[in-house]
Protein 1
Amino acid sequence: MATKTIREQYPVLSRQVNGHRLVYLDSAATALKPQSVIDAERAYYEHYTANVHRSVHTLGEEATGAYEAARGRVRSFLNAGADDEIVFTHGATEGLNLVAHGYGGTHLQPGDEIVMTPAEHHSNLVPWQQVAARTGARLRFVELGADGTVSLDAVRAVLSPRTRVVSMFHSSNVLGTVNPIADIAREAHRVGAVMVVDGAQSVPHMPVDVAALDADFLAFSAHKLGGPTGVGALYGKRALLAETAPLYFGGEMIEQVEREHSTFKAPPERFEGGTPHIAGVIGLGAALTFLSEVGMERIYQHDRELAALAYDRLAQVDGIEIYGPDHDRQSLVAFNVKGVHPHDVAQVLDARGIAVRAGHHCCQPLMSWLDVGSTVRASFYLYNEPDDIEALVEGLQHTVRFFHGA
Ligand code: C6P
């Protein structure tokens, strides 16, 4: 599929924003949706709206078939061993909460250790803080390298016989770095800990193989890879999911309910209580099909090339400070224009049709480590091209002139 054809499949890219063509550089917050995803959701609502796993009529069977087919698609996309290792969630945040509360909350003892980095998204930090407070476990943080990277030696330095959980991002939503998860998982397993992976920023941008990584759990969101909002999936090894307690109790997750007592279904149904986001799950399946047709290896290379180009071009703009390493970036660049608040930068860019994110990116401890309150972030995906980066560079040159004079 040629890049031009890819762009044409995203209807929102044909709109104008403030009199300019839309330059969408905020895919790390949420990615644009291709027509096939929009069509798949719409088809469910137009042609076979029904609940799943309940209704024994034609529409119910069709809906259940499409819902379970999407589970199979997630399994093959991640190279998981079996469909029942895939749990549908509201997104990465719910997946990580399910592991923290459902697994950590029932396995951690006082003095046990949970290892992570100071660069975690709040969704992979706050749930563990909560579970640590409840169980008496302790959080331990890996020391970041000077450029924000995570080295295996730094991970080894904090692992101990008390480590029970290592929970880390795969790709950073601020630094653009990719953690060596397969190596970290090997070290985690050596001390008897489980490896939890926050795949929110990796699954959309690179081939992710849970078997090759030997991840015990891996969570991601559909909306960051072109699927609908409010849905995602959690991969968990079958034996570990079997030891995980559900977060929600109610319809369809039960086996037998008596007045005073209930028993629960096996995973994954045990974790999908209540009517799920059926259209969203079907849309997630369509998004994975679309990405697979383009090819994840190709998307990986494309996004890396754009991130490298953006780094080089932004480094040439006077008055810009870039955060994170100068090489090996996955799909984004976070930076500041010296002396200008990130929100002001975002507003000036927006007036030129350029969408970026400004803020702490739900990574306040990392902002403290970087010694900033917030940053601007430009993030790229398969529909971006070098001309989008040139538009950003021109917009930033204009911003510098606007605030600091010619
Ligand atoms: N980061 C960003 O603009 P949810 O919100 O559940 O879909 O994903 C949470 C999440 C978890 N981990 C990482 C590394 C993430 O980047 C995100 C979402 C968005 O950076 C919204 S804050």
Protein 2
Amino acid sequence: MTRALPPTRHITSINDLSNKEIETIFEVAQGFLQNLADPNVPYRIGRSTDLAATCILASLFYEPSTRTRLSFESAMLRLGGANITSADPAVSSAAKGESLADTIRVISNYCDIVVIRHPRDGAARLAAEYSQIPVINGGDGSHEHPTQTLCDLFTLRTKNKSLRNMKIAISGDLKGSRTIHSFVYALARFGATIDPLPAPGMELPPHVDRRLREEFHSRMVSKTSGEADSGAIDALYVTADQPHQLALIPEPEKHEDIVRKKIDAVYVTRFQKERWAEKERPYPKIDAKFMRDEKYSEASVMHPLPRVNELDVALDKDRRAIYFQQAAYGVPVRMALISLLLHLHKNKSLHQFAGGFAKPEHPVYAQPIGTGLQCGNANCIVADPSERQYAANKLYVIDEPVQHRCKLRCLYCETDVEDAVADRFAVADLTRRTYSVGLDALSRTTGDRLKHVVIYPNEAAAERAGFAPREPGKKARAG
Ligand code: NCD
């Protein structure tokens, strides 16, 4: 008798996986290494199994890739499966203007699982909405790259045994690097301390900083003088292992312990020049001189690769350099993820692989298409000319009762609408035909009530659409 399969599951963010599921992926990856590694190179998969013998993976890549695509395809071949590939947008129907929704609807009939890479933030999540089969995000704009994070964490865990209480420095383009964004969420979730070393003007984006502090319980601690503000250049993100330990962090000796603790790994990223208007920027270089500092004496050097100039090739021979192993682990880790998403394991707990990270459930507001209000991120997938004819802007309504405020966050690219912009929004009530300015009216709204609301970018737009002010004569608060 065949067992019923759990519902189709997509991995578009590292936060689609619970910590326990991440550990499960690592156990399965470790099992593949134990059974299939090259006897001379323990981190290299050298043999194959027939676990996925009847399965096909499609790699749909709208952006250049070496490691991600080839390691996914190698993983599928090592599992005994087959690959179909569309890796050059110029020779696919994308060049004719085909939408992502149509492409995915068609491709899901040709294969069992798809990995997608796209230059737009949120593309994988939009694709997942139209897919009957699991969609894995192989990197979407500067949003996230969850499977790179799985390789990064697996590498750290293999090296350091545990992910808890590590201190990780992250260097370079923290704004444009999708690998960094998935990585910092995971580090916070596993209780690590993050030491940001951004290139000038390339700090973590505000929405990532905010989520680290508000959703993943990180706290800003100055490297010198105790508590710090978000955005302070000398600050660490400290995340306690257990939420109740947060209260202990400001205690002087604890603070000093954290500041004094040596770095366990330096994670280097290249300048993501394809995501910036300027092609040259001042940029830190990690080399032997940098690594000579005592605090890095035991620090592994990591890089998602490709490297350009930011990581000196002279470090390749340094015992602390582990970036080529990190890339090699892409095969067992992706074998594990594919086999779990396709429920190929007989063991009941592995066969289920359903659940995910317990995220806060925010109601979602869907903007009627063509009504003007858009996610503020110009690189969001819903701003793409091929997608915006059918893809509604969908925004989480995040109620902050303590601050008496509501926020909007794009469901696809997860960028927050800035307060100064949202303060001008007009929230129109379709039943009463009135509007009020600012997002206060959305406070304590349920998903159902949101269906009776349309948000306009400003009062004038609401009035043009035939709505009257809720409190006539009262001036807008802002704008
Ligand atoms: C990364 C990516 O594509 O985001 N590469 C990778 O998948 N290993 C990093 C990068 O391009 O800088």
Protein 3
Amino acid sequence: MTYSDATSPEELAELRRRYRAERERRVRPDGARQYLAADAAFGYYAEDPYAETPRERHPLRDRVDVAVVGGGFGGILAGARLRQQGVGRVRIVEKGGDFGGTWYWNRYPGIHCDVESHVYLPLLDETGYVPEWKYSPGEEIRRHAVRVAEKFDLRADALFSTSVTSLTWEETAQAWIVTTNRGDRFHATYVMTATGTLTELKLPGIPGIERFKGHTFHTSRWDYGYTGGTPDGGLTGLAGKRVGVVGTGATGVQVVPKLAEDAGHLYVFQRTPSSVDVRANRRTTAQDVGADREGWARERRDNFLRIVSGEPVEEDLVADRWTASAGLLEKLLPSFRRPEDRRAFEAAYEAADAAKMNEVRARVERIVADADTAEKLKPWYRYACKRPTFSDTYLQAFNRANVTLVDTADTHGIERMTEHGVVVGDTEYELDCLIFATGFSVGVSGVHSGKLPVRGRDGVELLAALRQRGPRSLHGFTRNGFPNLLQLGAGQSASSVNFTHVLDEHAVHAAALVAAAEAGDAVIEPSREAEDAWLAVMAEDAPDHEWFHAECTPGYYNGEGRGRPNGPHAYPHGAVAFHGLLERWREGSMDDVLKARRAS
Ligand code: NDP
């Protein structure tokens, strides 16, 4: 059955039935427990394939103004904004061998950013850089991260190939003691954590996974020594090889076309198809994006944020499939505008959703020649249930004679693995190489991972405090009991699909707090009352999206099918309003977070 313009009540009812059936087919009783933390399962995955052997150095015992945990865009932006506030000693501590964070680790063939580069790459106005492509390849983004770090002179004090192992507040020093896996033990008056959200890579807990004797790796630790080539392709090492890839999310969609070009035969093991929309990547020029005007990048970035946050604009500057589908992002983000007439809104929303997903499914039919393969590649769920993807080469790859789609939905994923390959149903697929594009554990990076204990005032442990008192903060950045600790990109703020923009606003805010604390000889620590007030703001208008996610096909957006907690975990009026609120708050006295420093 095809649904070209399914907006009649009967057709919507049929779609609802179909979506429910697909969800039932996919949901597993073990939920998020079906995955393995990769480094716990296989030592190989913990290694850094891109770093030279870490240089020997003496452990550090000194004191800095700010220690920043994480050298991705969050940490780099924190450093840049601190520099603009005149803060001197900023030490970024980074597990990888250089700056870049997710763009350091993810170098798989085909890697691109799926948000427009002119709004995704931060500080374009300040660096004078104009991205070459509408959607940048990963390497251009990684180089920009390095460019920003170097422009703001963050390299000299940075520690690479180094993981922070503990943070302990020392009352007498009015500072944090930072320890690392390289023997460092130094003091930092302030600590900013910018540890990302999707950093701990995961593998499916497939029975027998450890028995496989072929070559195997995760997409975020690409082994070019084995495959040959570069992120642009040319994977000559795969010639004549039987290659499998598990996972068809945002990563799988980018990597499959490149593997298809060079593998002897490629088996794509799919459990849930992604929605794959038009990409239309192209080279851009400074004139295209108006880069001859001062402040062009900020203006464009603000315009994009307004659109994807449901705010009115006069013109859509980016004009891509994100902005075209912005109305459907309502359920994707925990915070968004709230409709006046809920029932009318939900009906219109469902109809628009059906039209969009029909268009996505019709595109599969148009592109994929084999009818059975096309049927399996059609996504049967609502648009915001999974992160939408964009590609003009992914669906086309399935028209190649050397590519086979193996649908594993009926068996809830790959059933088991043997020494030789992968078993689905009655078939064993013998493979020389199996690549996991299976993503990352959500919400367990950095201070939430359990690997980085944080002891605040009176030795109170952060994770224990979160368990006991629930998540409490002021604006998502600071917590009572944890002086001078600022968390960037964490919950209880407002997010966006353009995460670097969010991180930059957080960096601006956190740097301003540090500057104010320095100027006022104060420590940064919100009162319990300030936290209570923030919880109340979030709870007051919290949107009810739980029902939506409870009906979605499983994935990391809904706790693998459980639905997601509807508590006050985000600012309910969206990112634009949140950034405005922060700006107004900074213009005030800040006295609900600045406390007189205790005499040491
Ligand atoms: P995802 O978690 O989105 O996808 C993992 C894939 O692995 C899914 O297709 C999943 O299927 C599949 N899978 C898991 N277990 C099994 C199993 N046992 N058998 C078969 N298949 C299995 O990870 P990604 O790395 O693709 O993306 C993670 C996030 O990273 C994205 O959502 C996005 O935020 C970000 N990203 C951003 C990019 C960008 O351009 N900005 C590019 C790439 C990633 P199922 O869906 O059924 O669970």
